[in-house]
């Protein structure tokens, strides 16, 4: 019903709306709606459901892999200063902290 009157995004969890790609959310919602058909012959098989979900996951994984490759190239191209207390100085990520000087074991 929500999909028919175009208010799907009004009833979804805000985190899904914020983090999910609209295309993926619509595909999952459409798949869910087809699974609710009263006539069993009109419903997708478990194999078909699995294939659709895997296709959605693969498209998301492809995007993540591209981002990782981009980050890897950025890190590999960075200048490393071995005399600096920072692990990755060109990215401004400091490895030193006040915790480094404290004992890691606590006595209770």
Task: Describe the structure in your own words.
InterPro entries: WAK-like (IPR045274). GO terms for molecular function: ATP binding; protein serine/threonine kinase activity. This is Serine-threonine/tyrosine-protein kinase catalytic domain-containing protein. The chain is an all-alpha fold and 108 residues long. 51% of the residues lie in helices and 0% in strands. The protein has 4 helices and no strands. It has helices spanning 8-11, 14-19, 22-35, 46-76. The longest helix has 31 residues, at 46-76. The model is unreliable at 80-104 (pLDDT under 50).
Summarize the structure.
The chain is mostly helical and 108 residues long. It is 51% helix and 0% strand.
Number of domains: 1
- Main beta-sheet strand count, sense and barrel state: none
Oligomer: single chain
What share of residues is helical?
40-55%
Number of helices: 4
Number of strands: 0
State the separation between the terminal residues, measured CA to CA: 58 Å
Inertia-based shape: flat
Contiguous runs where pLDDT drops below 50 for at least 5 residues? 80-104
Task: Summarize the helix and strand pattern as letters.
Answer: HHHH
Rounded to the nearest angstrom, the radius of gyration is 24 Å
Mean pLDDT reading: 70
Q: How much β-strand is present in the residues?
A: under 5%
Helix and strand content put the structural class at mainly alpha
Protein name: Serine-threonine/tyrosine-protein kinase catalytic domain-containing protein
Keywords: ATP-binding, Nucleotide-binding
GO molecular function: ATP binding; protein serine/threonine kinase activity
